[in-house]
Each structure stands twice: as C-alpha cells, then as structure tokens.
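[agent] plan:
  1. take the single chain provided in the ticket
  2. run structure prediction with default settings
  3. attach structure tokens to the ticket
  4. add a short note for the reviewer (M.T.)
[agent] executing step 1
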Amino acid sequence: MKSVYLDYAATTPVDREVTESMLPFFGEIFANPSSVHTPGQRARAAVEKTRSIAAALLGAAAEEIIFTSGGTESNNLAVKGLAAARRHLGDHIITSAIEHHAVLRPCETLEREGFRITRLNVDSAGLLDPADVKKAMTDKTILISIMHANNEIGTIQPIEEIGRMARERGVPFHTDAVQTFGHLPIDVSRLNVDALSASAHKFYGPKGVGFLYLRKGTRILPQMEGGDQERNRRASTHNVPGIVGLGKAAELAEAGMAAEMKRLTEMRDFAVERILGEIGQAHLNGHPSARLPNNINVRFDGVEGEALLFSLDMAGIACSSGSACTSSSVDPSHVLAAIGLARQAAHSSLRFSLGRGTTGGDIEYLLETLAATVARLRSLSKRGA
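[agent] step 2 finished; step 3 output follows
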C-alpha cells in the first residue's frame, strides 16, 4: 500500500543535514554555553551562530532573538510577558477569533486576571479586516496579537497594514508566525511587528526548540525565571543541539524557499481545482489565494470528516481534521466556526498540508483515493438514512 504524508502543518520530518549538524553537540561539544571555560564557549559560539542566522532571515539584529522551547512558549512569553510589562499603561488586548490556542488560552488567563480581551471576527474566508483592528483600539490598548497565517485554513492576514496602525498608536504588535517562518519571506521591519513566534519543527528542524523575535527596546517580563540566560528574558540552560538544528533548518529553508513556494503553490492549486471539479458538493475553506502555499482545507457535504479521515488513513494517506494540538477534542474547530460554518459542515472538513516530500504521484493518489472514498461514504450514509 502506498504511504502519503499530507500533514506537514502539524510537523515536518527533520532534514538529514539538520540531524547531522546536531550530532556533535550531543557528545563532542556538550558543555553548558553559559560556562566561561573553552568547551562552554565552543557551545556558546554555536548558539550565537544560530541567533545570527534566525535574525538574518527576519531582517533583525541577533540580540533580538530569544530562544525558547517552541511556538507555544514563544506565544505565551509574548502575550503574557508584553501584557505584564505594560499593565501600568492599560488593560486592553486585541486578538482574533482564529488564533492558535497557544495565543487564545494565555489571553483567557489574562482575562481572569483582570485584562480586557477583544477577539475580532474574520470574514468567511478567514480574513481579518484591518479597519476592525483600528476601530477596536483605545487609549488603554497595550498589545495586539494577530497570527501571520492560520494553521488550519491557511489564510494569510494583512499583517503589514495592521502593524502600521499599531505602530502609529504606539501599541506593541505580536504575530504568531509558526506556520510561515521558513516558508514565506519575512521582514519584521516591513511587517511592522514588535514580536514574532517561530518553531523549528515546522520547517524541518527538531521538536522542542523555537524562538521569539523581540524588537530592541520592547520591554517584556520573563515567564520562566532562574538564570540570566537570553539577556534575562528567558531562563533555562540552552538546548544546544536543538538550537543548532534550528539554525541549519533555517539556512536550508532560506536557500530553497522561492523554488519550494512555487512548487507547492502549483501543486496546491492543481489539487484544489481537481477536488472541486471532480467531487460534487466539495468546498474550499479559507481564502482562495491569500493562503499558505501548502494548505488545502476542504469540506465535503454529506460526509463525516472523522470517517473520511480514518478511511484515508487506512489507504495510507495521513492528513488531519484541524490543529494537531486539539485533535482529541470532539468539538468542531473554533477556526471553522469563526468563518461561519455550521457544526455539521465543520465536522465534514479535512486539511491536507503539503511539504518537501510531496510528489505529483502523491497528489494523484490522493485525488483518486479521495474521490472513491467520498463516494463510498456518501453511499453508506444514504443507505443508513
């Protein structure tokens, strides 16, 4: 049976060159990078090299990169840390209804602590109107957090315009770029962001490591306290092998980004056209063009998404019904609910996310298998009606 992995938005395999770059730091160069002796400074040099690589991809300075354990910690540090640092100036935070739970749940925590949270709605394509952000801002607004691109439906937000308005009002602006760093060109100055989250395992690096970009001069209160690592912004001994892997993955991503964006966009558009054209009552979720190059999120009327997911898995196709972080939940996706889908329609949706290993043959197998499986499940559904 053919095996096709189409869940790259959930995680990616570690690139072989990345693994090889990490190996010396498990044994040969194992010292603590905070140590002042020569072995420690060898490890520190590797950490600082990655800091410079990550910063260069963002058009940032090396000292603006804070290493973390991944996207969730980066988002928590940004939301909680920036809010706490500016609480004396106000208590209002603006975010969107389709953020990852790593932003929404910290906001819920802050709400219980007395902060006021505005969760802005999006349109049926998952797009946020910058005018709504401007309208929501008050003299008590101390933070705006809007994701760069949605992890479920792939819609890319107008971050540059939102950031420009935030800059004019002097409000720190954070974006969750976990789905975009390493996949799309990002310039933090052009986007007007003050903080940005990224995670290595989304761009063929190791799990358990990421970073938060924090613009110089932006005050933040640490959420992990202990040592004075990361300029007293995030305590804990550095995960040197992971950080080295992040750096190598970032280098590889930059080198192949333009070609991969083009390849995946063409493959995505081909698959979407075929799915919508050949499978009746199929619909695309998310924006038709302002979306991630590798994202296909579709719903099929008259089909239960979980049954379709498991049927495809039995055929060797790995995909998802939404965010991997909430895959155990029986509730419909909050993202699909936010774009106006009824419960049944949300439950009939699947996400296929492409990656470096995806081939034209994989797409053909998906299309063939998907059409047959949807037809079979609809037939079974009619019999049982």
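[agent] step 4 note for reviewer: The two ends are 32 Å apart (CA to CA).
[agent] ticket updated
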